[in-house]
Amino acid sequence: MPLSRVSLGFLGLFFTAGAIVLIFLTLLAGSRNSTPLNEIYFLQADTGNIPGAPTTARWTFWNVCNVTSSGRNDCGSSHPDFPFDPPSSRNFGTTENVPQEFIGTNHYFLTSRFMFPFIIIGLFFTVLSLFTGLLAMCTRIGSYLSGFLAWLGLTFQTITTCLMTAVFVQGRDAFNRNGQSSKLGVKAYAFMWTATACLFISCMLYCAGGAVGRKDGGYSGRKERRRGFFTSARSNSVKSQKKEETSYA
Hints:
By secondary structure, this protein is α+β, with helices and mostly antiparallel strands. It folds into two domains: 5-212, Butyryl-CoA Dehydrogenase, subunit A, domain 3 (Up-down Bundle); 217-249. It contains six helices and five strands. It has helices at residues 5-28, 107-136, 140-177, 186-211, 214-217, 219-248, and strands at 43-46, 56-59, 64-67, 73-74, 182-184. A five-stranded antiparallel beta sheet has the order 4-3-2-1-5, covered by helices on one side. α1 (5-28) packs antiparallel against α4 (186-211).
């Protein structure tokens, strides 16, 4: 049985809310040393041979963190839009034992810095979609509006996730080629790509909710109403004609 607009709108709200939770977990990782935020990071690398760097470093949106004996992030002061740029003063402030790929280029700095504004913009539109999703359960306009806002959020979320994946995969490979073992943070990538998928599903559900009932209320519905009107008119005409024949008889 096809789903109603209420059901589709509710499912859209569910996936939108799930995406928001996952985005917030990734965005706030590194801002506090509390669970689960201290378990989420983009990249981990062995940097003990780099002067001024921790033995093991983890990059987040807010800082580069040490790693505790229990495998959790141990982050200091937070700086929004923290760049991934090992040789710069914002990270380690030296080129000694830093992979050559990071030296003399702004690629990693700029790519990682653009992630932060894009995720904020995407989160803004996604939250708006969550609020208008309440209207999506009862009106067609609300469904299409929620779908449009979710699509905007999806666009910026996709850009952020692609930038994150590209820059930190390249960074991982650079550290590994330099003999410094490194790995990606599985949770951060799982959260961001899952949030992207949830927003895509939300867009589809909201648009489907807007299309529900269109056949009954659109051209076919008007056609049926016109047919009913003319049928009723003909019926009344026949009845009037029979009355006149009866009166003459």
